[in-house]
Write a structure and sequence with these properties.
single chain, about 160 residues, mainly alpha, 5 helices, about 90% helix
Length: about 160
């Protein structure tokens, strides 16, 4: 695969996947402390899989048009972003559906961080930068979101 098209695919895939991973990990960990969190988490994930996905996809679509990209590039970006986010969403939902919530939360973190690490590795290799540093940077940001979401949910539960 030529470098130009690999870079193009990585760019399109990385935005949608990263956005999904961080959003879903924050939601899963933030809602994990509820009494019966599965329906709330699954409902929240489905809403994000649709509404937030469409809004981000439209944002990418309009951005690509403003950059004077070709119609083919615009629609490729639009479709790739939507499908990537939707597939990442479905895997998180599947994890929540089949496992007890505490196990599902841990597996979701592992899945999200693993996917983020793999993407970071390929992007770093493509840019010829240190993959370890890229992975560390991206995982650190995700961990901050996870920890902040956990503490925010604890604060909300104590106040309500």
């Amino acid at each position: 695969m030529p470098k130009k098209s690999l870079k193009n695919i990585l760019t399109k895939f990385s935005f949608g996947a990263t956005s999904s991973i961080i959003t879903f990990l924050g939601l899963i960990i933030g809602l994990d402390g509820l009494t019966n969190p599965k329906p709330g988490i699954i409902g929240g994930l489905l809403l994000i899989a649709l509404a937030d996905n469409i809004s981000d996809t439209l944002g990418i679509h309009i951005y690509q048009e403003s950059e004077s990209s070709t119609q083919k590039e615009v629609w490729f970006s639009t479709a790739t972003n939507f499908l990537t986010r939707f597939l990442v969403s479905l895997i998180f939902i599947f994890i929540i559906l089949i496992f007890p919530i505490n196990t599902a939360a841990i597996l979701s973190i592992i899945y999200g961080l693993l996917l983020l690490s793999v993407m970071s590795y390929f992007i770093a290799k493509n840019k010829k930068i240190n993959p370890f540093l890229a992975i560390l940077e991206h995982i650190s940001i995700a961990v901050v979101v996870i920890i902040a979401s956990h503490f925010l949910s604890q604060i909300i539960l104590k106040r309500i």
